[in-house]
Amino acid sequence: MDVKQCVEEILKIGSLNGECVGIKEKANMLKWIYSGSEKTIKAEKAELESCIKSRDLYKPCTREYEASLKASISDLESQLSALKLLEVKKRKELKEKIQITRNEYYKAFNYLNYSDKISKLEKSIAENEKKYAESVQHIENFNQKIRSLENEISTHVDAVLSQIEKSEKKIPEIAEAITCAPTLLPGKLLNVLITDASSPLLAGLPIDKQVKLLWDRNIPLSFGGMEWNVVEIERNRARLILRGTVYDAIGFCPRKNGGWTNSYGREKLNGEFLNKFTDEEKSFIIPNDKTFGDKFTILGKEDIDTYLDSYQRNVPSHWWLSYTYIDQYSEDKERRVYFWDSFYEGRIRTNSDPINIATSEGHYSNSHAIGYRPLVLVRINDDPADAGWKDLWQSTAESSIICHGKWTSSNNYIQPYVSFSSADVARIMQNAGGSYAPKRNWRDDFNSNGTPSGHGGHYR
After folding, report:
1. In this structure, are strands 374-379 and 296-298 parallel, antiparallel, or unpaired?
2. Residues 6 or more apart from 283 whose CB is under 8 A from it?
3. Which residue in 98, 101, 301, 337 has its CB near the most CB atoms, within 10 A?
4. Which helix (H) or strand (E) element contains residue 396?
5. Sign (positive/negative) of CA torsion 225, 229, 232, 237?
6. What is the largest CA-CA distance in the chain?
7. How many CB atoms lie within 10 A of CB 449?
8. Which 3 state secondary structure label does DSSP give 92?
9. How far is Cα 97 from Cα 101, in angstroms, rounded to an integer?
10. Under DSSP, is residue 237 helix (H, G, I), strand (E, B) or coil?
């Protein structure tokens, strides 16, 4: 099977799966109708039982009998109005007779009224039970069709996968020729055709659809020309973390002015860095109400365990954390800033002079540069008309998910996506009152395979 035949087969699979999705939608709609009919029938039977009990409190009668009682009441009332004032005894007898006749009339009226309701309910129940039986049969027919299509799809998928496995080099060529929506492809086939974030099947997909498609796979998302992973899903929004770092070789903030609020990182990430995204990409970003409405923020010390497992933490470089505290034992009450040291010892560190850490001038002089690993919150659209995406997303639409262990980071050093300019470094160092000429770090040398040399056994 050549590439053209393979693509034709995959498109056929997509068409069959699309048909299967459509039938499932119809089946779900019928199940909703089925459920409504079942509830209606149950309610009507309960009302029928109540009406029968109420009707049986009265003697059976006919419409003719009810009409005769009504006529008798009218005749007695005419006789009463014809009596003279002095005919007191006769007037009293007629009034008593009218009351007795009225009581009898109300009993007959109630019996016949309940009888009418019972007749209508019995008719309605019979009609609803017929519709119910038809719905059950339709659903079974749909289920048979779905099973048949799924078996046919499975057979085609196994055949295609068998051909793809014989020539893995053709996967990019095959993926590039696919024109159907990725969600129409069965998971087994999709996993083979989507091998990384540069897959042709992912090209042009907005970030929310990438989240739906890739959140539980070890495949990074492409957003702003950079690779991201999902750390958390909250129904209609997802929190992403950058796979590498940005703005290495710069401090978190000047001395005694610590914290995220006044940091250079916050300024850069929500200014220059944000402007690297297109207007369409920006439209997906949700301001973070926990950090002053920032579009981009960074992890706090407490977020490390919440969002990342041991493998997900392993971006081999340092990255800043937003938590700061005042050192009560310091003479001038300096602020200390945390950072995650994954490059050497994989633990949280603190230092009171982050500018010097970043430029290799502090007492922790063998440290690698400390960058930023941004977090961003993006909205997820839920389009009811898009059956494929709705079916894909329904398992997580009503829940929150922490993506522990759903992806892993590369164990090679990741160069920062964005670097500070020399002017930035000079300005920041001058504001901090220090030199901006960094000393050479012997651990910044790299081997041919991209791993740092001279690591002294610390590199994991």
Report:
1. antiparallel
2. none
3. 337
4. none
5. positive
6. 131
7. 6
8. helix
9. 6
10. strand
Please state the rounded mean pLDDT for residues 11-24: 88
- Going from the C-alpha of 338 to that of each of 87, 312, 317, 321, the distances in angstroms are 109, 18, 14, 5
pLDDT of residue 441 exceeding 50, the answer is: no
Give the pLDDT score at 95: 92
Angle at 51 between CA 47 and CA 53, to 5 degrees: 120
Cβ–Cβ under 8 Å, residues 315 and 412: no
For 359, residues 6+ apart whose C-beta sits below 8 A from its C-beta are 249, 251, 425, 429, 434, 435, 436, 438, 439
Residue 61's identity, in one-letter code, is C
Which residues, 6+ apart, have CB-to-CB distance to 46 below 8 Å? none
Residue 37's contacts (CB-CB under 8 Å, 6 or more residues apart) are 128, 131, 132, 135
Q: Is 150 helix (H, G, I), strand (E, B) or coil?
A: helix
Amino acid at 150: E
Backbone angles phi, psi at 63, to 5 degrees: -65, -35
What token pair was written down for 321? Answer: 């954390």
pTM: 0.61
